[in-house]
Amino acid sequence: MPSTPVKPLQAGKSYELRLSPDGTQALALGRNVVLWDVATRKRLASAHPFGHPSSAAFAPDGQRVVVKNTSGEIVVLAVPDLSTLCVADCRGWGEGSAPFWSPCGRFLVDGNWGGDVAVRDASTGAVVLREHYDCSMLHDISANADASLFSFVLFHRGEDEDEDEDEEGGEPKSRSTSVGDTIATRRWPFDQHAARVFQPPRAWSHTEGAFLSPDGTRLAVMVWQPKHKTVLEIHELRDDAAGQVRSLRLDFGATGPTLAWSPDGGTIACIELQRVTLIDVATLKRRASHPLPYASHVEFSRDARLLAIGSWSKGVVLALEDVGAPT
């Protein structure tokens, strides 16, 4: 088990900051992809596989990482030297959700905004399974701790006509309106399990993110509401419905909606305005926070001793016990 670092690891600008399965390394995504040793706080390697890397994930064995950029390009890099092992052919795929590994580490899962989900061979990048969801946009993908269950946020948008006329043609303007978002869950392997699509107890007008608990029995959903702004809802997953437990209004104003479950499922780390907040799941009360401008990503180590926080200004890995009282 890795030792807690004496001092926090300052990773610099890191839109995403991911911890290796054993917690000894941290992968920072900025202009470059940088691998850090958490205990010594030293750089191990740096790579620039393409421009604008945006999301990454360690393989289950910690020996590889998959990186995706804002154009939808995907590469697999070796750990610890970050040499290129595989470049996936993503022509025509486009931007989309973050990539995930299958439980066995042989496959990659990712989606695009057009509603497509691909399963790729991690050694060649070849697509071995491609499916399409009937939606306006596949917004987000999540997986539980062992990647035996995945969730997909599906936007459903319709077109309404405004009463105002277009200034030039005199035709009514059209605008996109929500007709209620849904979430699909899918057990791995996908070719042996059908997707389950369910509606929430009340309509979600705009789902900003959904995150499966480590055991896959609950779903933390960040929903934008006109009156209450961003609200965190905790749902228990049942056969064809999401049973709402309780909700909490968030002080949202960060770079993007993201949160992380602790390994035991008892705590949620959530990015709020200029800080990361630890929320007790049982009570939905804030119990600790860490100030950090422009925080963009958060993650617990698997042994729950470390917290990694990506930031557009200065990412950090620190001991969980060093996170202070809520502000």
Jot down its keywords.
single chain; 327 residues; mainly beta; four-stranded antiparallel sheet
Question: How are the elements arranged and paired?
Answer:
Blueprint: E1 9-14, E2 16-19, E3 25-29, E4 33-37, E5 42-47, E6 53-58, E7 64-69, E8 74-78, E9 84-87, E10 100-101, E11 107-111, E12 116-121, E13 127-132, E14 137-143, E15 149-155, E16 157-165, E17 172-178, E18 182-187, E19 196-198, E20 207-212, E21 218-225, E22 229-237, E23 242-249, E24 259-261, E25 267-272, E26 275-280, E27 285-291, E28 295-300, E29 306-319
Antiparallel strand pairs: 1-29, 2-3, 3-4, 4-5, 6-7, 7-8, 8-9, 10-11, 11-12, 12-13, 14-15, 15-18, 16-17, 18-19, 20-21, 21-22, 22-23, 24-25, 25-26, 26-27, 28-29
Structural class: mainly beta
Most strands sheet: 4 strands, antiparallel
Mean pLDDT: 88
- The sequence of SSEs as H and E is EEEEEEEEEEEEEEEEEEEEEEEEEEEEE
Tell me the number of strands. 29
Radius of gyration: 20 Å
End-to-end gap: 32 Å
Q: What's the helical proportion of residues?
A: under 10%
Which strand order do you get reading across the main beta sheet? 2-3-4-5
Describe this structure in words.
- A hairpin with a 5-residue loop joins strand 2 and strand 3 (25-29).
- The model is unreliable at 160-168 and 172-176 (pLDDT under 50).
- The protein is mainly β.
- Helix content is 0%, strand content 54%.
- The chain has a domain at 1-44 and 250-322.
- The chain has no helices and 29 strands.
- It has a four-stranded antiparallel β-sheet, with no helix packed on it.
- The chain has strands at 9-14, 16-19, 25-29, 33-37, 42-47, 53-58, 64-69, 74-78, 84-87, 100-101, 107-111, 116-121, 127-132, 137-143, 149-155, 157-165, 172-178, 182-187, 196-198, 207-212, 218-225, 229-237, 242-249, 259-261, 267-272, 275-280, 285-291, 295-300, 306-319.
